[in-house]
Amino acid sequence: MTTNPSNAPEREANRLTLFWQKFGPNTYPIDIDALVSGTFNGDGFQGSLSTRLERFDSFEGCLVKTSGTDDWTILLNSRTPNKRRLRFTYAHELGHFMCHRHLRDRFEDSEATLNDFHSDVEREANIFASSLLMPANLFRDEFSADPWTTELLCAIGSRFECSLQASALRYINLTSKPCAFIVSRDGMIVWSSKSKTSPFLRAFKFGDELPELSYAKNPPPSEVAITDSVQTGYSWSESQCCKESQYFDYSGNGFQYTCVEFTG
Ligand SMILES: [Zn+2]
């Protein structure tokens, strides 16, 4: 499904960011409730947009129009265990409101649709959410000079109250540095992303084994969640040396996050 190009998700997010930074409190992590009540329940939009946090069985988030009106409601599931994920879902539903409400009257999101990279509508709502929660201007001002490490990744996640995966994807998309982010479990890649300037990686696709000489494959036997960045030569690329650091998720999922920065 294609959408109206005038409703491009980044442009819509930037419009709200400008509003928040110039005329709003300009505080971050952004207060989405305050943004919604300050923006849409005033001049310029004839209907209303409100938010309800309740227990639901069938979805994590939903944008729905009240029949016969121009009033919209974002429903958020209070049972979502991870508050950062709930924030992202909130911003995702706001993205549907800003970019897609001319398409239909109801958007319902489960974990599957929130991670659907094939649907234009879902992908655009995620781009909107990421751009709104982590504005490019702040990102570049505060984080572009630092090396790409799991320590930086955690700092970004805390600064914007976003998941580490969402924070990593935003960094990778905005940076000019050659770098990559790998999520793995039991030595196999589950998810990965690399910047435009990154070289070809020895292992990158879902199901690939971590490279034999990488730090990710041979982390230190300790209980620490974050490791220092270490040089691991050509472990990830035949053409460029790199530094690697690790983050271990002890919440029960067994995921390992690896930040790789190529140093030439
Ligand atoms: Zn959606």
Plain-language structure description:
The protein is an alpha+beta fold and 264 residues long. The protein folds into two domains: 5-133, Arc Repressor Mutant, subunit A (Orthogonal Bundle), CATH 1.10.10; 139-262, Beta-Lactamase, CATH 3.30.450. The protein contains eight helices and nine strands. It has helices at 9-22, 32-39, 83-100, 111-114, 120-133, 136-143, 150-160, 164-174, and strands at 48-54, 61-65, 71-77, 106-109, 179-185, 188-194, 230-231, 242-248, 256-262. It has a five-stranded antiparallel sheet with strand order 6-5-9-8-7, with helices on one face. Strands 1-3-2-4 form a four-stranded mixed sheet. The radius of gyration is 20 Å and the shape is elongated. The N and C termini lie far apart (41 Å). Bound molecules: zinc ion. Zinc ion (ZN) binds next to helix 3, strand 4 and helix 5. Residues 92, 96, 107, 109, 113, 122, 125 line the site of zinc ion.
Instruction: Give the N-to-C terminal Cα separation.
Output: 41 Å
Main sheet characteristics: 5 strands, antiparallel
Indicate the proportion of strand residues.
Answer: 15-25%
Overall form: elongated
Known CATH architecture of the largest domain: Orthogonal Bundle
